[in-house]
Amino acid sequence: MKRKITLKHIARELDVSISTVSKALKNSEEIGRDTKDKIQAFAKLYNYRPNNIAISLKNKRTKNIGVIIPDIVHHFFTTVFRGIEHYANARGYNVIVCVSDESFDKEVINMEMLANGSIDGFIMALSAETQLKNDYNHLKEVTEQGIPLVLFDRVTDEIQCDKVIINDEEAAYRAVENLIELGRKKIALVTTENYLNVSAKRAEGYRRALKDNNISFDENLVLQLPYQMEEESMSEAFFKNQKFDALLCVNEIFAVKCMGLARKYNKRVPQDMACIGFTDGILSKYSTPSLTSVDQHGELMGETAAQMLIDKIESDHGENDEEQFETKIISATLIERGSTLSNS
Amino acid sequence: MKRKITLKHIARELDVSISTVSKALKNSEEIGRDTKDKIQAFAKLYNYRPNNIAISLKNKRTKNIGVIIPDIVHHFFTTVFRGIEHYANARGYNVIVCVSDESFDKEVINMEMLANGSIDGFIMALSAETQLKNDYNHLKEVTEQGIPLVLFDRVTDEIQCDKVIINDEEAAYRAVENLIELGRKKIALVTTENYLNVSAKRAEGYRRALKDNNISFDENLVLQLPYQMEEESMSEAFFKNQKFDALLCVNEIFAVKCMGLARKYNKRVPQDMACIGFTDGILSKYSTPSLTSVDQHGELMGETAAQMLIDKIESDHGENDEEQFETKIISATLIERGSTLSNS
DNA sequence: TTGTATGCGTTATCAA
DNA sequence: TTGATAACGCATACAA
User: Fold this and answer.
1) Residues B247, B159 share a domain
2) What is the CA A125 to C1' D5 distance in angstroms?
3) DSSP code for A316
4) Which GO terms describe its molecular function (chains A, B) (predicted)?
């Protein structure tokens, strides 16, 4: 077993001091040609690599960023994560992921673990429970310690920090307008409980679009499902009792499920019921018919968040001057497919 | 800004030595009641937390594990990751993820970065390119350094280490038998290039099942698609030219795409063409018809891998005795749905 | 009961 | 041109 070699080993072996070795390996001008050559050759031979941990301790920089997301088996978060990972890697950072499982406690525990020196900054999306409790003390503590934080997608106004979001309200607005342009009059909304701020935003856009187009808002056309829509009864009843010719769903699973129900109740998609979902994931692409959906550009969001974070981390000498925070808005785009276009 | 406090701060503030503080906070019996109380109170007040990095350096244990996977926007890997993350967290470990993007070079770079002290062990699935090149020197180096490694799913015989796999060959065998029991005679296989060892295994199972049931193997009934099946021409031709009444696909995307093609060529699923896929992901559940598929139990695989890894890490005093490696096999199970069951 | 010294691996300052 | 020393934050063997 070839154990990792350290500066000390090299120094001892070559009968020089540790600091000489250190300098030689950094190609310092201070060290003589011969000594440098000798040391460098030896280091290469034994494949010397500096120990990251020691360097972290010395520099007070880990080159790690912490990512905390509610769920990992989830197309959108996964996409964002990919963007973060790519960008971070390109700038020499590694990514430590913790999954909160939509739990407040886990979110808090994970943050505290990582905040004790393991990472240089956080990127996170709030768990559902955190948003429900409206308790952000763990975020406050972290920012007060001077650890940079970037929130994405599931954000809160309670915390002053960089943020990356999509224009949910407007995306929903445009989706509904799109349906109206297709001649739809009775447009239903399928959403989650309102404490998820993205859902709330989307509902606002939905209402505003109706209003701007002189369609009166009908509460009966809003179906609010629990986040993990497991039992079908609510949606079954909705399909039985309500009349509508179009559907806006706040995620693609709801949308695909609803298209299934439409089939069951003999509504053709898109002829009798057009359908638009949020999250342009794998389901949208491969469902039958394929689903028109709002692409949230997760990868771009991730890259953007990572860039904001790393920029802040690396400019952190300015701990005195007034902190300036930014909220970047990623423009969602509508990908039109079979569920609204009859010629597909 | 409340900067992180250290032992040294406390010591200075309370006019005691650093080691006294250290012991007091560990509730050591050596320290007097009063001093202990004083120190503990102070530490609590200022929310003292030991610095992870310093502890890592001291203990030569990071409590981090490195996970390297080919892709993160991928249901199966994501599921495995969840299992790893859950288990690791429960045992006090954090997870650093690197994505190889199916690239050999990235895999190597990522491993080397993490191997320099950032992690206590690796869990990984080989990238496609690595399997294609058949070059495992980066894995060898890591294991030779005494860093524990667990491979899962995409493994290789070239490396001696712990492994977790599913019984791919048998799962495919059983899937085909299932189709035969349903009365299917001409069963096609849709697979990827063979350098992906899982695909190869599945193809073996397919052939063995045919043989055991006296169905002659017909090369024309095997469709081999590039990994990222973007152009449709090959599969279109296949559907036009070949006759078959059942399909085994090595992943769910292929399966769903094929069901789409079946529709296009007026084959009813499952009546005219039954279909089974691998990876019981979101597509299988929500496709129309829903897809019968082989559940690889990714989460269990992840937990198992994490357990093997952490057990090895924590038993690592035994660096002298002969290393014993294990390969655990997770039993895949067939989830029957609409694509093989006509009554659904 | 408390404190001193040393080490983990590295870098940086200063002295030789 | 090289080396001794201190420091990063913590833990511990050993002294006092």
Assistant:
1) no
2) 46
3) T
4) DNA-binding transcription factor activity; transcription cis-regulatory region binding
